[in-house]
Amino acid sequence: MTSSGPDEEPASAGEAWDVDVRRHHDWDSEDHVGTAIIAALAEALDVPPPELTPTLYDTVDPSAIDALFAPCDDGTERSTTGHVSFRYEERRVVVASDGTIEVKKR
Description:
Elements: E1 18-24, H1 33-45, H2 62-69, E2 83-88, E3 91-96, E4 100-105
Antiparallel strand pairs: 1-4, 2-3, 3-4
């Protein structure tokens, strides 16, 4: 995890990534972040969510992302800021602490 914003790239990133899909996840909702990530990937890849291959869960553990950014079990906000990024096929997915989800392509 880094503390830079979701649009910033590490110096070693090479080619620039363009935002293909941007969505927002409400950490206070009962929906899991994985659902929002799947919807964003499906939109970016123009496939129905059940047809995503590999599955999101074969690529990353969405519950770990929830654990980083979602409110604590007692409802208090986490002080974590930053983002998590991972590759899904030829895309880069960035999930930020403010709830922004971006699917990027080269």
